[in-house]
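From the shared-data thread, chain only:
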Amino acid sequence: MLVGFTEFNDYIADPGRIKDPVIRGGAIKMLPPFFHEPWRETGGFCIVAKYEIPGGKSYAVRCWHSILNDVRERTIAISDFLKSIKLPYFVDFAYIEDGFMGEKLHPIVRMEWVEGLTLNKYIEENLWDSSKIYALASRFSEMCIDLIKAGISHGDLNLGNIIVRSNGHLVLLDYDSLYHNSFGMLSDYINGKREFQHPTRVQNPNALSLVDNFSALVIYTSLLYFAVNPNAFLRDEAIKLGDRLLFSADDYVDFASSKIYAELRKFSPQTRFLANELLKACRAESLTAIHSLPNILEEAHTQNIYFDTITPYIQVKVSFVSVKNKGVFSSNRWVLELEATGEPPCDLYVLVGEEIIESNPQNYIPVLTIKRAELTSGKKNVFEVEYKRKDKRKKLIFRIVPSMLDFREEVEVIPEIKTITR
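Structure, as tokens:
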């Protein structure tokens, strides 16, 4: 079954040795400048040549040079399955048992040659056209939905295995790790690129139809962020070279401490949501605990978070103008005056403490929640608070903070604290 490199070079260029009737009589692509040696690409398990047949169509011809568990059974199952479905993300793919005569007969895989740009090249060429990157993210999520509906996992979603055609449509390459439940129990020996896979993938013994959930979230989050922050694509050589997108494999080990996690959380409601989902995924103890991209997007919609446009946070400043006793000083009613430069992304809490360490939030008690919509930008906003002092000799401290600590970067209260000493 296995072909040697010398054997492949010596015989693959001879059309008469190709037994597949679809490509028999075609011409193999040769290496310039002398065109004496066939062009080939060598992967971890296969050697690939390119055959061009009359009429302008081209095919990749793949031969195995390394042994793999159940590769024959898997490839036959994939070949038969792809003939039975009609999804635009897959191209003509066929297993030919006696496909190539070298020093002996070898099986081959014939696969339609796809013209287009790899995902990273497409991003690079259209980096400054946010509408195209948004559209790419949308088409990617649609593809993920269609694959899940069909019960298919690709198994190795990465930049080189996703091609963008000239019409913008997506095509998947490299079906070696493709899986459908109808295949039965198969080993998960191709674990994918670490930069796109959950840390537990290497421990996964058997192929699963949901194995793409993590890589889909990684790719979708990256695409959306590049649409609004193209400089994120340019700042790392590994991203430009196509080795990864926003995230490194090391990020997944302790995602909460990674720089990119903090960056995404501060950027917009959409990137914050996706960063939190990715954190949950990274903390999952198994692949089966990771939610699919369609389910994640549905959950976002229940929170009124949509991804057709990313709107970065704009820091809102809230001026804590004054706090006064409403009547005589013995009154328990207090009047707070605030001014805002915009609508905060969350509600505000009014906290009160007496003779406390001001920096410790646990020393305060909440006395009022100011709804975000109640703050009118550019105007004085007045709110009343009821609080009975325990000891008038102690200073009374009012503090205003965002109701969600996540938004401390987006809401600045100046000053945060007002003190009454009488």
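The mean pLDDT is 87.
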